[in-house]
Amino acid sequence: MRHWRGYFLKVHPLVYLALCILFLSAAVIYAYIQLFALRNQVLSLTSNLASTTAALATTSEKLALGLSTVDQKAAELSSTLSATQQKIVETQSGVESVRTQVGGFEQQVGAITTTVGTLEKLSKTDPELLQKYSKIFFLNEHYAPERVSEIPKEYLYDENGSEVIHAQVWPYLKMLLDAAKNEGVTLYIKSAYRSFDEQKALKGAYTVTYGAGTANQFSADQGYSEHQLGTTVDFITTGLGGQLAGFDTTQAYQWLVAHAHKFGFTLSYPHNNTYYIFEPWHWRYVGVELATYLQNTNNHFYNLEQRTIDEYLVTLF
């Protein structure tokens, strides 16, 4: 083999050269082909990149346009929201204004209703019931309470007698008597409503018995007695032999002084009054509000001006 190889190299150098050239040419051609293929790939990638870049640019423009539109819509919505909020505020303000007006109107209506109610109540309340009598105002012989209620026997000192009182005063008087009984205080009614004629007969009897001067000190003439109003009672208790004298020394009197105002009653003729002698048994209904005022201020009915007393007429019952 070596012999032929050497021979070949010596005999055919041109062939060897040709083979080398052919090998190199094939290598170059292969390299060129690979380079060409690589160039095509680069061109393809470049084209794809350009296409992708263009697509991205288009998409970016669309996104930018979309964002611009979104911003515009957001601005419009923000403007609409602000306008709506303003409308809400204005509406709320308007509603509040209407409420204020309605409230004011309701207050006016309430005030008017109260006034009408007060006037209606006053129109149905006998103004004579809070007038000062006892030598000041006069009740004629035809005056009598609108309605009277008979006082049950159990509340009378004389169970065989009969006494009536103004119908609207009776519930307060009953509560007073029941409250006293519940606290262990013995309290009865000695006398209540007296008509003009009954007062006239009583005053006549006192005048005959005690004389006119003495009778005038403790008994009113007909037409001047609080008993004719039907709102006044004479209380009595046991242990006095059926007499009114000495009533101020009893537990019953002390209880009345402390509690009678709660039921609308006040002592008409206290110590040192200018009308009659001290009458601890004689109590007049003037309404809870006025009686409480008199109690709290340590005052008495006949010490007040009539116009002041008249202000309590609406709260009498």
Q: What share of the residues does DSSP label as strand, in percent?
A: 5-15%
* Radius of gyration (Å): 59 Å
Based on helices, strands and strand pairing, what is the structural class?
alpha+beta
What integer is the average pLDDT? 83
Strands, total number: 6
Side-by-side strand order of the widest sheet:
3-4-6-5
The residue ranges in which pLDDT falls below 50 over 5 or more consecutive positions are none
Element order: H for helix, E for strand = HHEEHEHHEHEEHH
Using the alpha-carbon principal axes, give the shape.
rod-shaped
Q: Tell me the number of helical segments per DSSP (H or I, 4 or more residues long).
A: 8
How does the major sheet shape up? 4 strands, antiparallel
The percent of residues in helical segments reads 55-70%
- How far the N terminus sits from the C terminus, by CA atoms, comes to 156 Å
Helices, strands, pairings?
Blueprint: H1 2-11, H2 13-123, E1 148-150, E2 164-166, H3 170-182, E3 188-191, H4 196-210, H5 212-218, E4 232-236, H6 251-259, E5 265-267, E6 282-285, H7 288-296, H8 306-310
Question: In a few lines, what is going on in this structure?
Answer:
The chain has 317 residues and is an alpha+beta fold. Helices cover 56% and strands 7% of the residues.
